[in-house]
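Hi team,

As requested, here is the filled-out complex form for the arginine run. I kept the field names the same as last time so the parser does not choke. Let me know if anything looks off before we queue the next batch.

— J.
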Amino acid sequence: MTLWEGRLGSEQAPELMELTESLSFDRRLAPEDARASRAHVRGLARGGIITAGEAAEIIDALDQAARELADGAFTFARGDEDIHTALERRVAEIAPGVGGKLHTGRSRNDQVATDLRLFARRELAVVGGLALDLSEVLAARAEDAGGAYLPGYTHLQRAQCVLLAHHLLAHGWALARDVDRIVTTARRLNVSPLGAGALAGSSLPLDPEGTAADLGFDSCFENSMDAVGDRDFVAEALFDLALLGVHLSRIAEEIVLWSTQEAGFISIADTFATGSSMLPQKKNPDIAELVRAKAGRLLGHVAGFLATLKGLPLAYNRDLQEDKEPLFDSVDTVRRELVAMKGLIATATFNLDRMSEAASDEGSAATDLAEYLVSEGVAFREAHRVVGSLVREASTLGGASIADLVRAHPLLGERALGLLDPAVGVARRTSPGAAGPAAVARQMERFREGIASYRRRVDDLLALDDRER
Ligand code: ARG
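And here is what came back:
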């Protein structure tokens, strides 16, 4: 049986179904489809399109079908092209006659758009929550790190030494921006398309405002064609997830680098490391490598889906069915990444001795020496030149050490010698947002406050799913 047997007869070529079906992946929208259907039925009853008794009967049938789907007891039929078709068919079987009224004033076009918005709203909130969990681990590790320091790099060359806490929080702020973006996207998408019908609304007294409120949407569509043709929210969600994945890949790349024997800054816990099938000594950072790699597929989904949307005429086109797989995959990928990275970072050991040893490279103090000269009244350009030539001299074969040269320099001398100690240097980074202990303590406070406020926004979003009229 097909939904359109009145027009096209009841048989379809198997080759058609093979390509056009979406049940194989959109069955995961079953809970959203059942919820949106219940709201739709209540709306039909409010409009007097069906009686309260009919509504109750259809809702009971929907509940039963949804339970069957959740328990795996649901048997799909050959003609079930997608989850919407399957659920409606089952409702009509459970409640013969009245079940045929479920789809009154509704199209799969507004139905699928509604389902996917409900799905995206919740999943983005879940991802936001997981990103906050990881941010909290970064904050906790930063707090534990206390005054530990390591070289900060530009161009992957040692630049100035920084607190380990500062370095970890730098990644934390990127994640906080991700959560901000995700929450904003979820709020912006929280507009109901239900009641738009196939594209033009309906002659029946539907109650789109009421169904929107029922489903926890903040508002309802203004234009029925836009409502069924719009997938901006999918593109935005894919971008937010891709950027989050890119941020994770940057953390991951540092974990790969830091865990090399060459750097030795970090030891991954055995439970979060992998071995080699042939090389007995190996301990590999596979989580970090895969997180680095998966950023590629995430950003592929953004580019791919924008290409799907490009040039689509209004309103609904079957092309839009291609919205689901990238969204599902991006959500699943990022969720798994966040959980794995949280465990990896929570259990890794920071080798603080190796870090401070690397930071004690005298060259890392060059900027501190130049700033010392500035505080003595030397123009920065001149100070840069003076220190630069000291470093150059020290780097020539058989040259004196930077310490010797500093001691002997008329503008520097004994008083500046202490700056070569990285602990002294880092403590002097006191400007707002700087890498030294005093500034980092203030930063940590703000970071914690930010995380707490994002947590409230994520929880508000999650609460929309518990509320059903
Ligand atoms: N499975 C379809 C999708 O995901 C549902 C909407 C079908 N609408 C239609 N006019 N064929 O987009």
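Two things worth flagging: The mean pLDDT is 96. The radius of gyration is 30 Å.

Thanks,
J.
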